[in-house]
Amino acid sequence: MSKKFLVGSRYFFGQYPDFKSKDTDHVYLLEKGKGFASIRQVSNGAICSFEVVRKPVAEMLDYALHRGDPMQVGKFLVKEFAEEIRMKTSDLQRLAPIMERLDDKHAYLKPIFAAIIKGQSFDIPEPDRDEAYKMYKEARNL
After folding, report:
1. Which of 3, 17, 46, 133 is most buried by its number of CB atoms within 10 A?
2. pTM of the prediction?
């Protein structure tokens, strides 16, 4: 059994009328891996799926810090995913080192991360979301 979560730019910016994305990103939270221990990515160009094995929050954060692709920090910024794994905003602070490793196309996650930490809530204030969206569009020349 798995749970599916919309993540990535569609999650953060889908409500903007001028939003355009080349793909849709999902995270599937699995109770057991299917031949892998932590995470794997499957993509067909239009849909990018991340399959993540449910583990204690500390273990999931350690994997992201030491072995994961920096852009994968985005899944931890999604309120529904964070709630499902019972992650607190105080746990999220551990991922601060990843923010410096993000490429230009994923730097939009920085103001979202900062807003969550500052507000101690996974509800992102509109001004911070607007700032992130501006960065997203600039990095993609939209």
Report:
1. 133
2. 0.92
